[in-house]
Request: fold
Amino acid sequence: MYNITLIKGDGIGPEISDSVVKIIEATNLKINWDVQSAGADVAEIEGVPLPQRVIDSIKKNKVALKAPVTTPIGKGFRSVNVQLRRELDLYANLRPCKNIAGIKTPFDNVDLVVVRENTEDLYAGIEEKISDDEAHGIKLITRKSSTRIVEWAFEYALKNNRKKVTAVTKANICKLTDGLFLECAREVAKKYEGKIEYNEVLVDALCMQLVQNPSKFDVLVLPNLYGDIVSDLTAGLIGGLGVAQGANIGLDCAVFEPVHGSAPDIKGQNLANPTALLLCAVEMLKHLGEVEVANRIEKALYSVLSEGKIKTRDLGGTSTTDEFTDAIIAKL
Reply:
């Protein structure tokens, strides 16, 4: 029996959460879901979008599965995701991107992993309004955080039979901040000589090369802001955010979450695609050591997608969330 925090989020979050829970239950794996609420709806009731009870639950259970939470643009509270990462020191953001049979994309040779530093850079939110016409933001890069994320990327590469780690910066312009990140990457890379290949690329050149020939990359390690942008770009290479998984991992806790939005426009209409959250759950189960169950779910999902008979609207089909869920369970 596993105790796992489940944050259902808002918008389509509860629908896809229920879908994933139903699929996992069909494997007979015993999980006690500690259901917690967070987000815009919670903020209206409790005054904050991320109550302390949610943090306490994750600290107790060590593992959480989280559905999308709406983040206001330009005003209102800061991202719940950013706050979670900071409160729990979830310093490594993992975004695997691999082609899925049955989903048409411009490329059929994408198999890479984005490893993003998760706690600092411009995402630290150190901003100051100077006047109505001027605002400042601090780009925070430290040796400690840069070193540990690059080490995490190399260790991930070793454990998952990856061959190459590429450090991504804009160190030709941001010579002190990105320069420090690059310096740390070079120092770490020396420890893995002969085991993992290492190279470097500027973030703008990377974006161009990714849409020309993504197969040349394996594991990418980036500071926070570049990682956020590039991971969405790579998701576009495999069919979009609806099929892209994500995880936030620290020394003590791990939160597994998709990176797509809460899609309030289709809330409650039984149209949402649970694929991304299900893939997050698969990664979560592997993290827990339940590899056999994870592989069963993954195989069932890929079988449904490959056949192409049951597809949600975002994938070009007409199936409902429930129909898609039932099809995966039937494969199990």
Summary: The chain has a mean pLDDT of 93. The longest strand covers residues 92-98. Residues 143-159 form the longest helix (17 residues). The radius of gyration is 20 Å.
